[in-house]
Amino acid sequence: MHVLVTGASGWIGSALVPELLSAGHRVTGLARSDASAAALTDAGADVLRGSLDDLDTLRQGARAADGVVHLAFRHDLAFSGAMTEAALADRAVVDAFGEALAGTGKPLVIASGLLGVSPGRPATEEDGLVAEDLDSALLNHRQETARATVALADRGVRSVVVRLSPTVHGAGDPPGAFISTLSATARERGASRYVDDGAARWPAVHRDDAARLFRLAVESVPAGSVLHAAAEEGVATRDIAAALGEQLGVPVESVPAADAVDALGWLGPMLGLDSPTSSARTRELTGWTPTGPTLLEDIRAGHYTR
Ligand SMILES: NC(=O)c1ccc[n+]([C@@H]2O[C@H](COP(=O)([O-])OP(=O)(O)OC[C@H]3O[C@@H](n4cnc5c(N)ncnc54)[C@H](OP(=O)(O)O)[C@@H]3O)[C@@H](O)[C@H]2O)c1
Q: Is the CB of 71 under 6 A from ligand 1?
């Protein structure tokens, strides 16, 4: 299969490219810079030059491929507070791919998120498929894009949404990622913090396990499916803070939810979102068996504190 991958040079993409190539597929990666293009070429992929704003290029790339995995996301906007703009830019890309692939039966696999899908109880793959009033612009818009992707199944696209754990962890996780940000904040402020009693849980998945799930999704998952890239159902955020605090040698402290933004920055409110997640249906549908390591093992191995 010839797969177009956006975000192929990113954290998950750079694990997905070798995963697809070693399974015998051909990969074309979107690259907006010489550096990203060179990294893709070195990895053995072909390159489509362009950015997420070049919707015509994306449509042409999709038509030339047998399927698309869409990982790129305007984190530059999202992590600087322009969450709605980031999510709307993503929606425009998904709509362009949908238009290009309508009626072809080709796969379109997109990355989405799990935080806040069904707070307080284990989210299943069936949750979040009807419009809900989530209290975050990014979460809300991303779930809308996920729903629009699922709906493409009715237009002859083998559309699949992979909802990722908030932490796709591993050695080399880039600085802007969630656990890296928590670690940097703890180092900077001299304390590793969690919100309230820290009982809020985050699901977690190792990068290589996530990449394997994207490969399985593009190869054979039925149209309109939602998959959960959650190897661990939920790791208490208090345990995450404690593991980071232990590695950094700083105290571990609770902060009230009302002070979460002051104490933890933009990540504060997300840290208080209890988002346990089931991946039972995903495993049944795909045979996906994550092999780890776990999030706490990766933190204790020093991957987030060196
Ligand atoms: N990592 C996680 O823990 C996690 C958790 C939940 C959801 N997700 C989602 O999973 C997807 C992949 O995440 P990631 O962590 O692999 O992201 P990442 O490391 O930040 O990589 C982002 C990728 O998108 C590309 N990109 C960004 N803006 C672009 C633009 N304007 N035009 C073209 N390409 C652009 C980047 O290209 P350059 O190489 O040129 O910068 C890079 O390849 C995203 O949708 C993300 O929100 C990730």
A: yes
pLDDT digits (tens, 9 = 90+) for 142-201: 889 999 999 999 999 999 999 999 999 999 998 888 999 999 999 999 999 999 999 999
Cβ 13 under 6 angstroms from ligand 1: yes
**Domain extent listing, the chain:** 2-166+205-231, 170-203+233-276+292-301
DSSP string, the chain: -EEEEETTTSTTHHHHHHHHHHTT-EEEEEESSHHHHHHHHHHT-EEEE--TT-HHHHHHHHHHSSEEEE----HHHHTTT-HHHHHHHHHHHHHHHHHHHTTS--EEEEEEE-TTSSTTS-B-TTTT-S----S-HHHHHHHHHHHHHHHGGGGT-EEEEEEEPSEEE-TT--TTSHHHHHHHHHHHHTSEEEETTS--EEEEEEHHHHHHHHHHHHHHPPTTEEEEE-SEEEEEHHHHHHHHHHHHT--EEEE-GGGHHHHHGGGHHHHT----B--HHHHHHH--------HHHHHHTTTTT-
17 lines ligand 1 (CB under 6 A): no
CATH fold of 170-203+233-276+292-301, please?
Answer: UDP-galactose 4-epimerase; domain 1 (3.90.25)
Q: Record the pTM.
A: 0.96
